[in-house]
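So, can you check these tokens?
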Amino acid sequence: MRTYALAFAEVLFACVPDGEDIDHILEGEACVGCAGNDPGEVRVVRGLTLTARPAASDEVVWCAGPDGDLLDESGRAYPYAVRRERWPERG
């Protein structure tokens, strides 16, 4: 299962697959004036799962607002980014 990194403050700045250079994306947003926040206010959280329905054990980190959903690398939309416990592998 692919996990994602989100960068946000009061608004979502970026949602990218883990391993992509999210800092570069944030620098680009700041250059075009989209990021009016102090860079220290922007929170980056990695290892999140995108989902349409959080499980009871999930910690919801981001819930999309009326401006749109989170998009995965295939362009599918999801309203939630959650921290999900990984199941132990069976041996």
Q: What stands out?
A: The helical segments are 22-31. The chain has a mean pLDDT of 83. Residues 22-31 form the longest helix (10 residues).
